[in-house]
Every structure is written in C-alpha cells, then in structure tokens.
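User: I'm curious whether this sequence folds into something compact or stays loose and floppy. Could you predict its structure so I can see for myself?
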Amino acid sequence: MLNFKHPKIQALISQRHWRNLSQFDAIGAIYHYVRDEIRFGYNADDRLSASQVLKDGYGQCNTKGTLLMALLRAVGISTRLHGFTIYNELQRGAIPDYLFVVAPKRIIHSWVEIYQNDRWINLEGYIIDQAFLKQVQRNFADQCQQFSGFGIATKCLATPNVDWQGEDTYIQSDGIADDFGVYSQPDDFYASHGSNFSGVKKLLFRYLFRHLINLNVNRIRAHGVSQNNQS
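Assistant: Here's the prediction. I'll summarize afterward.
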C-alpha cells in the first residue's frame, strides 16, 4: 500500500521540492498538503494504495494516512500506523441521517506516528481539510467546547490542535473506542482487523453509499451546514 516509488508520487515530491527541506519543514509541508489538498471524503476502500489515494484527491483517516505515510517515507522520515476503532457518532452530520443507520457502531480508524527528535509523535489532525472544518466551526464553535460530529471529536472545536508545530495533532481522538497498537505497514493492520463492511453492505458502500456521503460532505464544504445536517 505504501508504494512511494510510484511515478506519480515521485513526481509530486519533485514538484514540491520536499527533499530540499529540513526534516521539520518537510513534515509540515507534506502534512498540510495531505490535510488540505487531499480533501476529506470517503474512498471505495480503506485498503487503497497511496498512489490511488493521490489519484482520488480525497480520503478519510485511513486512506489519507496511507498517503501521508508514503510521502513521509519517500523523503526519509520514519513512520508507523497506530490502529483503533472510533464510535460512529462522530461521523454523524458528515454521514446523513438516512444512511447513518447502516454505519457500524465502531469504525476502523488509524493515525500516523512519525519519529522526530528521538520520540514518536502522533499525527491525526490531517483528516479534516480546513475548508470543511471552517464550515463546521461557523455553525458550532462560538466557544472552546467539546464537540463530536461531522468527522470531528475534539475538546475544543474553536481551536483544535491540527497544525504541524512539532507536536501531536488530533481531530478525532476524543472518539476512540478500541486501541489495536502500532503497525509498520498498513497492509498488516488491515490483514488483522479487516474493514468496516463486508458482503452486500460493502458493495452498497462502494457503489452507492459513499457517493451520497461525499455529495453531502462537498455540499457542507461549499455551502455550510444546513438545518438538516444540524438535527
């Protein structure tokens, strides 16, 4: 899955000159690229290669994490995956209510850990792009309050810890249910814990449900949170 030698990934790295940056600045540039230029959205499967996520141009925790790991490893930064499940309630709003009934109670989740300055740092704040986050904040973040919904679970929606400053970043960590530990490759994590759907539900998600969810997410990003989304 971490196919960072793929021509499209190598071309992106060369175009952005990420190899010419210090390690700290390269982490920041790649992190913010994945956060904001790879929009929040739902791919066909968690087990996509990094090059496929790049081609899609959007992703969620697991798929954006795969791309982030690949880009960081391509410039020589050590990474690993930390696997979890999250409670489905934090997806309410991003997933419309009429589809929420089919969502599993606990959803496979992951974040990326990087080795920097002799310690592992947790990166999770890349999941929600800034354009989408700002629309949610406009409707709910009049003060620093705990919030869960729209793909977000944080202690302070007004100022979530999502910018790279050399420390941990989080955007969904308050919704974690199970902790599965760390993995050197995403392939190993999904081989052990599978994915969120199987059988008919998996087909329906791939060919119908996710497209409806992405329409909703794109509508929020463009026009804000509607009354239906808030209910």
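Summary: The chain has a mean pLDDT of 95. The first strand starts at residue 39 and ends at 40.
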